[in-house]
Amino acid sequence: MRKAFALPTVAIAAAAFPLFAMSAASAHEGSSSYQANLASVNGSGVSGTGMVTLDGNTATVKIQASGLLAGSPHAQHFHIGAQGTCPTNGLEDDADGDGFVSVTEAAKYYGAIGTSLTLDGDTSPDSGLAVDRFPTAEGGSISYDRTFEVTDEVHQAFEAGTAVIVLHGIDKDGSGAYDGDVVSDLDESLPMEATAPAACGGLKAAQMGTTPSGGAETGAGSTAGLENQGAIGVGALAAVGAAAAGAVAYRRRQADQA
Ligand SMILES: [Cu+2]
Question: How does DSSP assign 145-169, residue by residue?
Fold first, then answer.
């Protein structure tokens, strides 16, 4: 719904109202926390949670998940650059009818790899399929905890609400291993089971106080231009935990003008 948390929109609101500029600046000091509920994709039965704290570009990432193929590695990433959402758990998004919602088919929701959530070493997209450095699901569960640096692009995706945690690797045929006739859309030397998304969750700013409700809907009406953009800006600032009082004052002011 609120996919357009573009930085230029925030800039417009900040320029018009200096109070917002102060709020936006303070939101970048200290740390910000984000949470994701990981839900099944491809009928995997996987569930879990993700928690990310950003202090500048230093990310502390904690992921707990269960229901994964036991004893096998599971690639996991921050995906960025799309809607910040996930495919459904069924096959509605299986465009090519091969029985899997592939990474390619899911990309319209969650985008491309921004960070590879490896256990050690490189975390860039280059390590996206570095299976020997991803967690192995002992007993079907993983518990991941690592602190490392993310790129500016990834940081911005968090602030825009478009960062997503994706865990990969499913055992669709119940054989106990990654196998089968369908080849991965990412690497033809791998079976699709090894790379298809198993769980997914959009990362949302953890609530740090009262958040104004309404948001973008409030400004819809006859003067759809700057006023509407201002309302979207309020929503974006709320998402990064800015002062709710300033936002309420702004919306009262808008109401007075209506
Ligand atoms: Cu991924």
Answer: EEEEE--HHHHHHHHHT--EEEEE-
Tens of pLDDT along the chain (258 residues) come to 444 433 444 344 444 444 444 444 444 457 999 999 999 999 999 999 999 999 999 999 999 999 999 999 999 999 999 999 999 999 999 999 999 999 999 999 999 999 999 999 999 999 999 999 999 999 999 999 999 999 999 999 999 999 999 999 999 999 999 999 999 999 999 999 999 999 999 999 997 643 444 444 443 333 333 333 333 333 333 333 333 333 333 333 333 333
Cα 220 to ligand 1 centroid, rounded to whole Å: 36
Its pTM stands at: 0.71
**Closest of 44, 57, 70 to residue 166, by C-alpha:** 44
Q: Give the domains, in start order, of the chain with CATH numbers.
A: 7-257 (2.60.40.200)
Distance 116 CA to ligand 1 centre (A): 8
Element (H, E) at 59: strand 58-66
10 CA from centroid of ligand 1 (Å): 29
